[in-house]
Amino acid sequence: MDLFEYEAKQEFSKHNISIPKAKLVTKSTQTAEAIANLKPPYIVKAQVLVGGRGKAGGIISATSEKEAEEAAVKLLGARIRGLLVKQVLIEEKLPIRKELYLSIAIDRFNRSYVALTSATGGVEIEEIASKTPKAIIRTLIDAQSGVRSFHSLAIAKQLGYSGNQLVKLSTIIQKLYQVCIDNDAEMVEINPLAETETGDFVALDARMVIDDNALFRHPEYAAKETESLSPQEALALKNNLAYVKLDGDIGVVGNGAGLVMATLDLLNFFGGKPANFLDLGGGATIEAITVALQIVFAEPDTKVILVNVLGGIIHCDDVARGIVEVANEAKVKKPLVVRLVGTNQQEGQKILVNAGISVLDSMEEAAKQAVEIIRGAQP
Amino acid sequence: MGIIINADTKAIVQGISGKQGSYHTKLMLDYGTKIVAGVAPGKGGTVANGVPVYDTVKETVEAHSPNASIIFVPAPFAQDAVLEAITNKIKTIVVVTEHLPIKDAINIMAYANQSQVTIIGPNTPGIMTPGECKLGIMPANIFKPGSIGVVSRSGTLTYEIATGLTAKGLGQSTCVGVGGDPIVGLNFIEALELFKENPNTNAIVLIGEIGGNMEELTAEYIIQERYPKPIVAYVAGRFAPSGKRMGHAGAIIMGKQGTAQSKIEALINAGVKVAEKPSDVTAFLVKELLP
């Protein structure tokens, strides 16, 4: 899960990484008091979890208290790239000399954490990374030792620092790794890390992604996990289903991430558009299938539902009974195409046929048929 | 004779008393896998599915000299279980456990690397050398002995494609699921290296998906090595949106990184036949191997 900038900055602050003095506001009525506690100039930032927030108008500079208040009031309740702004961070804007880039991420191939740093940070970092990859210094981190001072000193030196600043920057790199480890983050980023006119380093922006699989160790984040989810997404999460809403009209339910992705690809191949991705997981239970179908049935855009279950462990007859039950109880009837093979296949298919549900052996034929139903439905 | 496991593999099951562990122990035994012992702390001295249960891995080593372990321990305790197996010099460890935190996985891999242990997974359906040994949760009846090596990031998609292969008489030397997580042990390149040296493997099926760059790096390896055996690939997730996790923790496009298009291009560029539909994999292989 992604943390808001202000949440990530709180973690930085706990680990003694400097952040600008700031106040978070959630209501227009709070802004005047918040600003009164800060010194001008200001920077007013919408707290939304989306890239390119600045370019979309979500970050406003202000020189006076009045301007800052106007900016905060304007952003609260506005939409930035489609996301509602519920919180605004008002910060003191610091005089800076230089912007650096600093992050800890996962290097899948080397099976380790990696420190990514660059002497030129800021909004263009992705462009820098793709045009001049050498400008990004990649340092693999040994899981057993972590980031020791000699590792981080070497990085700070490569970034061109010496003396007192070398040591300061090196310490921040070590602290950032600790933020990552302590929070079970899969990515933590300071961009930009400002070198101020006084020669100090301050985290001007912050991103942090917490590993969803580690939330059992972080109840403080786990409690927030469902906040930004739609009711369908929350229901799916509660039942250990992997659900992603898409913009088409064919609902999809299947077991196994790869199989469901392949099902979406087949629908597209035959000219159809999936309305969702829904993976029951490898060891899908009947309860899971029931909830999954309820989620897909409830989606108003969905016109046809394609079920693709390759039953190894689960029994096809159980699956079939679950499907028939949901289909019968559904308030809005929607055509179902079912691909069901595996253990007790014949019994399962018979149950479906008796209930008037189309059932096939091949996932390709099933995908094709779902697309044909949609085509037939459109005049 | 396939790769990594064979008829002589002597395995233990860590987490043998849990629902999944107990159920799959039975299925593995039914298949003929030599499961010599199980581990379940606090249940030492009992018997599960006819297999003696111990409190610790150390005791199983003393009594049975296993050379492999399959782990069904729930995620919060899985790191300890894997490190216990590594510490006791078990050389092949299959981690079926899903939802293992990345931090734990990274730590496990560092220890495994140091001890030269092969970790398969986490979040894997396991590994199977048809007719000899199954260490995993895959439905055994869809596989049959033969000369196709299969390496995959996806469980059920592997079953889908293996069903097609078997139906056309193309049996498998070994099928290995590398796991759906961002951090996994055995990767595509290492599996290809083993299949290259394996005399019973004539061709390889590689099943990739969105997320990361393992397929791209594998393509580089294939070019560098002038890989001597034909490879047919399928890559799932051509129409997956960016920034969304598609079921597997590792199946996520980040910005422009990890798209199916990038993987498919890289593999084609390396001379790999890339199937557009799962059923095309078998069709390509039939053409390749039975001209």
Please give a structural write-up:
- The complex is a heterodimer of chains A (379) and B (291).
- Chain A is of the alpha+beta class.
- Chain A has helices spanning 5-14, 31-36, 65-75, 125-131, 149-158, 163-182, 219-222, 231-238, 257-269, 286-298, 316-329, 345-354, 363-377, and strands at residues 2-3, 22-25, 42-46, 59-62, 79-80, 83-84, 88-92, 96-107, 112-118, 137-141, 185-196, 201-203, 206-210, 242-245, 250-254, 276-279, 304-311, 336-342, 358-360.
- Chain A has 3 domains: 21-92, Dna Ligase, domain 1 (2-Layer Sandwich), CATH 3.30.1490.20; 96-221, D-amino Acid Aminotransferase, Chain A, domain 1 (2-Layer Sandwich), CATH 3.30.470.20; 231-377, 3-Layer(aba) Sandwich (Rossmann fold), CATH 3.40.50.261.
- In chain A, strands 1, 8, 9, 10, 11, 12 and 13 form a 7-stranded antiparallel sheet that branches. A 4-stranded antiparallel sheet of chain A has the order 2-7-3-4. In chain A, strands 15-17-18-19 form a 4-stranded parallel sheet, with helices on both faces.
- The longest helix of chain A has 20 residues, at 163-182.
- Helices cover 36% and strands 23% of the residues of chain B.
- In chain B, helix 3 (75-87) packs parallel to helix 4 (102-114), helix 5 (155-167) packs across helix 9 and helix 7 (214-225) runs parallel beside helix 8 (260-269).
- Chain B is globular, with a radius of gyration of 18 Å.
- Classes of the chains: A alpha+beta (379), B alpha/beta (291).
- Chains A and B meet through helix 9 of A and helix 4 and helix 5 of B.
> What would the CATH topology of the largest domain in chain A be?
Rossmann fold
Radius of gyration of chain A, in angstroms, nearest whole number: 26 Å
CATH class of the largest domain in chain A: Alpha Beta
Query: How much of the residues of chain A is beta strand, in percent?
Result: 25-35%
Number of strands of chain A: 19
Number of domains of chain A: 3
Q: Which stretches of chain A are poorly predicted, pLDDT < 50 over at least 5 residues?
A: none
The level 1 CATH classification of the largest domain in chain B is Alpha Beta
Largest sheet of chain B: 7 strands, mixed
Looking at this structure, what is the CATH superfamily of the largest domain in chain A?
Succinyl-CoA synthetase domains
One letter per element, helices H and strands E, the order of chain B comes to: EHEEEHEHEHEEEEHEHEHEHEH
CATH fold call of the largest domain in chain B:
Rossmann fold
Global geometry of chain A: elongated
Q: Radius of gyration of chain B over alpha carbons?
A: 18 Å
Q: Which structural category do the helix and sheet elements of chain B fall into?
A: alpha/beta
**In the CATH classification, which architecture of the largest domain in chain A applies?**
3-Layer(aba) Sandwich
First and last CA, distance of chain A: 42 Å
Distance between the termini of chain B: 25 Å
Placed side by side, the strands forming the largest sheet of chain B appear as 3-4-2-1-5-6-7
